[in-house]
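Narrative of activities, Objective 1.

The group set out to show that a structural description can be obtained from nothing but a protein's sequence at a throughput compatible with the screening campaign. Below is one input-output pair from the validation batch, recorded exactly as produced.
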Amino acid sequence: MPPRLQLTAVTVGTSQPRTLARFYARLLGWPVTQEHGPNPGEPEETGWAQIRPPTDVAGPTVSFEYEHCHARPVWPSRPGTQNASQHLDIQVGDLPTAVEWAVACGAVEAGFQPQDDVRVMLDPDGHPFCLYL
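Output recorded for this entry:
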């Protein structure tokens, strides 16, 4: 029998961790629970931040970690470009309203949409995320 394992967090590599944490916090209505700026001598954009769902909402903690060699993902993927190797899926009750809210928060709708009941969005650092019914 395998040991008890529980996924509790997801970490997203980014060129702007604190900005991205604030974007997703606003989008989801979750608080930023931790935020660390650069160490002495590091560029201003370095650091780390975390958002966590409110106690009445199920979901993992999402952390945002500075990547020194971050390359914006390309959606949809193309040979020779940085693939989006993972993305966040966010369930919504009303897709057009959720898209409008995401855009108001700073996302953009991706040019390629593979399904009618899903909208691929791009966050401020280019990571795709999906809003779905």
